[in-house]
Design a protein that fits this description.
This protein is an alpha/beta fold and 218 residues long. The protein is built from seven helices and nine strands.
């Protein structure tokens, strides 16, 4: 496994973002681990977070394959902003970024978006935290498509839980088949199990592997 993936897993644990125990996921499933990016709370954490997303972008697609970073409200907002910042400070790549409001503003300049104005031909990369069902992207795509004649070739997320829905496919596969968007996780649950195998109790690892066997892509 690449070093930056190992470092990112350690970073999530140290930040209280990657948690192990007994949790209820949004799907209603009982899960032995949980990812809550709302637990990032310092400037240093925000800088490191942008660093890891930027490194993933540069490793996977490079800096010339997109024009705008978009962060879905609310958790995607600091992710997109920190990634735009570290792309510039660490790689000298200056990209626009924007995010959406949950409620349409009916005064001042109005509208749904804050930040860069999307234009025809823009190639947009979505920056999100965790994809479980793909609900967030399905909610924001109509607003993005209505703003301009854009393309959305890629999305980057922190963790792929690799969970399958009723159709037996992961949300990542569904999003690609429905919208043509390639979703790239910095790490997957398999990466987490591999890296944490000697750092967690055997019971926790067993429960994670059992969860993987029952609910996740084989």
């Amino acid at each position: 496994m690449e070093k930056y993936k190992c470092d990112f897993i350690d970073f999530m644990v140290e930040s209280g973002v990657l948690l192990f125990g007994d949790f209820i996921a949004k799907s209603g499933r009982k899960t032995p681990y949980f990812v809550n990016t709302g637990n990032y709370k310092t400037g240093a954490q925000l800088y490191k977070l942008g660093h890891y997303y930027s490194e993933a972008i540069m490793n996977v697609i490079g800096g010339d394959s997109f024009d705008v970073l978009f962060g879905p409200a609310y958790k995607g907002i600091p992710l997109a902003a920190s990634t735009a910042y570290t792309l510039y400070t660490e790689y000298g790549i200056d990209k626009k970024y924007c995010f959406n409001r949950k409620e349409v503003k009916d005064h001042g300049e109005g509208g749904v978006f804050v930040g860069a104005k999307l234009g025809d031909g823009d190639r947009v990369v979505i920056i999100e935290d965790v994809m479980t069902s793909g609900l967030s992207i399905r909610e924001t795509l109509p607003y993005l498509k209505a703003a301009a004649d854009i393309t959305i070739p890629h999305e980057f997320i922190s963790v792929d839980r690799m969970e399958v829905g009723l159709n037996g496919k992961t949300a990542i596969k569904e999003i690609y088949e429905e919208f043509g968007i390639q979703v790239h996780p910095i790490v997957t649950v398999l990466d987490i199990i591999e890296h944490m195998r000697n750092k967690l109790s055997p019971d926790v690892i067993d429960r994670m592997e059992t969860y993987l066997e029952h609910y996740c892509e084989k």
